[in-house]
């Protein structure tokens, strides 16, 4: 790996746990628990939290309480709260919930587009056009996700050109930021270099984000590769929560605690308090009745317990 001279001084971490993380949970999580989680994440200092998803409750029941969550949270000054909005119905709900950013979500794979949002890539771009226009009219930030940028659970290989093509179409809708998403966590660092290298010809690198799931344990390596490639925005999920209901077997996003530990070690500023994120991760994992998936989070929590024990 190359010397850290090429590394940025600062990156933006978008916390997606309350949405990407929790959307996959089978048991209904009370809105009060989600609110407590978002509030803890706000206090930890994230500049951007993906807190809601205004999709069909028949498709993703866990997100049905999104309006309640948005109404209940204590908003931090300057913090951007984002919500997924696949169509105008979702947009209207997001607007009423006073989000600062709406997220349209397309795919680089036709098969995934059909399974996830029930339409082709071309049809999705047409639906997104109205959402994009409405976002601009109301002065909201517009972000887009490109799912399956490194592989698809249904069609397998996804060509780099199809990632570049969808990115260009989303750019033309006026997006402020575009997420290059490894939905099923199959990427390796060489592919990360190749994809970001190509996509950067379509959209400014500084507005592209790396959204890595950790299914094959490659996410931290992939983030390092993305940093080398010039990416400065990353998505992660507290306690490594999640998966995608339309990508069976895919595990959660890379754990935020692990990403923050990496950034600390590299001397890269995030503005986020790792200890408070560890607490938030332990809080939600306790509620879910399982251990957090974050290696760094669990190590830090174990060390604390050790210290407390030795004081007794
Ligand atoms: P559809 O069935 O084709 O839509 O679904 P429709 O327009 O025919 O409507 C069907 C019913 O849904 C109607 O209700 C609508 O009112 C309702 P009914 O009349 O039958 O009672 N409906 C809605 N309800 C609430 N909010 C809405 C909404 N829209 C329609 N916005 C649709 C099309 C897109 C709605 C559906 O496929 C859907 O909701 N999909 C969501 C899938 C999803 O959320 N996937 C997970 C998030 S993506 C992800 O995780 C990837 C990401 O993390 C990046 C990565 O890792 O790759 C972002
Ligand atoms: Mg995701």
**Shape summary:** globular
Distance, first to last CA: 44 Å
Main-sheet strand order equals 1-2-3-4-5-6-7-8
Can you identify the CATH class?
A: Alpha Beta
Instruction: Tell me the Rg in angstroms.
Output: 18 Å
| Low-confidence sequence ranges | none
Give me the CATH superfamily.
Aldolase class I
Number of helices: 12
What class do helices, strands and sheet pairing give? alpha/beta
**Could you name the CATH topology?**
TIM Barrel
Rounded mean pLDDT score? 95
Strand content: 5-15%
Bound ions, cofactors and other small molecules, one mention each: 3-hydroxy-3-methylglutaryl-coenzyme A, magnesium ion
CATH architecture, by name, is: Alpha-Beta Barrel
User: Strand tally, please?
Assistant: 8
Task: Determine the fraction of residues in helical runs and give it as a percent range.
Answer: 40-55%
The total number of structural domains is 1
Largest sheet: 8 strands, parallel, barrel
Summarize the structure.
This protein has 312 residues and is α/β, with parallel strands linked by helices. The chain contains 12 helices and 8 strands.
């Amino acid at each position: 790996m190359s010397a850290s001279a090429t590394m940025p001084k600062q990156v933006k971490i978008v916390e997606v746990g309350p949405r990407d993380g929790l959307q996959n949970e089978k048991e209904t999580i009370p809105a009060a628990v989600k609110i407590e989680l978002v509030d803890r994440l706000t206090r930890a200092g994230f500049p951007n939290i993906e807190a809601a998803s205004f999709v069909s409750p028949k498709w993703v029941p866990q997100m049905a309480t999104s309006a309640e969550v948005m109404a209940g949270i204590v908003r931090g000054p300057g913090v951007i709260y984002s919500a997924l909005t696949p169509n105008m119905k979702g947009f209207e709900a997001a607007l009423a919930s006073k989000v600062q950013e709406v997220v349209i979500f397309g795919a680089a794979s036709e098969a995934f587009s059909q399974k996830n949002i029930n339409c082709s890539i071309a049809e999705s771009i047409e639906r997104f056009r109205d959402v994009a226009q409405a976002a601009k009219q109301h002065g909201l930030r517009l972000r887009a996700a490109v799912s399956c940028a490194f592989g698809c659970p249904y069609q397998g290989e996804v060509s780099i050109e199809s990632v570049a093509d969808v990115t260009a179409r989303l750019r033309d809708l006026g997006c402020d930021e575009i997420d290059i998403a490894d939905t099923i966590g199959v990427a390796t660092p060489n592919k990360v270099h190749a994809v970001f290298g190509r996509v950067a010809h379509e959209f400014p690198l500084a507005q592209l984000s790396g959204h890595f799931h950790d299914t094959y344990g490659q996410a931290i390596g992939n983030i390092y590769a993305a940093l080398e490639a010039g990416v400065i925005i990353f998505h992660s999920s507290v306690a490594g929560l999640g998966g995608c209901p339309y990508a069976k077997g895919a595990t959660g996003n890379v754990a935020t605690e692990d990403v923050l530990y990496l950034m600390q070690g590299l001397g890269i500023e995030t503005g986020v308090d790792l200890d408070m994120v560890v607490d938030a991760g332990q809080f939600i994992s306790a509620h879910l009745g399982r251990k957090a998936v974050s290696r760094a989070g669990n190590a830090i929590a174990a060390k604390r317990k050790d210290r407390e024990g030795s004081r007794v």
